[in-house]
Specification:
It is a single chain. With 210 residues, the protein is mainly alpha-helical. The chain contains eleven helices and two strands, in the order H-H-H-H-H-E-E-H-H-H-H-H-H. Helix 7 (114-124) packs across helix 8. The longest helix is centred in the first third of the chain and has 25 residues, at 2-26.
């Protein structure tokens, strides 16, 4: 594991840095921020590429900001629980639309830390738990002090002996506990948490994505 991990780290490092720059750029535009939020709402128990394909289809057809529930549902073909998630997308849209325009950037900028923002999102946006809210924050450039604890990351954390076992469920307390270990491990090996996340994800899936 050690040799493979080291080799992979250097192979993907440049591409990872480029991807993280793209994520930071997302934060400059209301539409990009909202797209990433919707993407992360779709991701639970669904493949990331399928979710992003649905987001791109919704954008192309002008449905992300104006589509009705049935129209949105039709574009979530390979997304699990599409009925529920279509409702979540509309509720998120209604939450952030002010006088017909998105107003999500100003809210994000009003928070002093990504941790406070994550708590707010989990509390107010249906479909976002700690994993999904963390994923969203990473995808808009706030990934250096948080962890996206999906099955790929948890599996690798166990292999790396960062955790003893993969929990059957993640309560807030357990999530924050493992996140703390993830951050400590990233510091120990001198890799930013956002970079480490993409490295481990690429190791499991064979590609770098979102």
């Amino acid at each position: 594991m050690g040799n493979n991990f080291t080799r992979l780290k250097f192979v993907v490092k440049k591409e990872i840095k480029e991807r993280l720059k793209e994520f930071a750029e997302n934060r400059k535009r209301e539409d990009k921020i909202f797209e990433e939020l919707c993407f992360c709402i779709l991701t639970p128990q669904s493949k990331a590429k399928n979710c992003w394909h649905s987001i791109e289809s919704l954008k192309k057809k002008g449905l992300l900001l104006s589509g009705k529930e049935e129209e949105i549902k039709k574009e979530l073909k390979n997304v699990r629980f599409k009925n529920k998630k279509a409702k979540y997308l509309i509720e998120a849209r209604n939450f952030f639309l002010k006088n017909g325009r998105l107003a999500i950037k100003s809210l994000i900028d009003s928070f002093n830390s990504p941790f406070e923002l994550r708590e707010y999102l989990v509390k107010n946006i249906k479909g976002l738990g700690y994993k999904e809210a963390s994923h969203f924050l990473r995808n808009i450039g706030f990934g250096d002090n948080i962890a996206i604890l999906d099955r790929h990351i948890l599996r690798n954390l166990k292999r790396l002996s960062v955790i003893r076992e993969i929990p059957k469920s993640l309560s807030k307390k357990k999530y924050l506990e493992i996140e703390k270990r993830f951050i400590e491990f990233s510091k120990k090996i001198n890799i930013k948490p956002s970079e480490l996340d993409l490295i481990l994800w690429a190791k499991e899936t064979g590609f770098i994505f979102k």
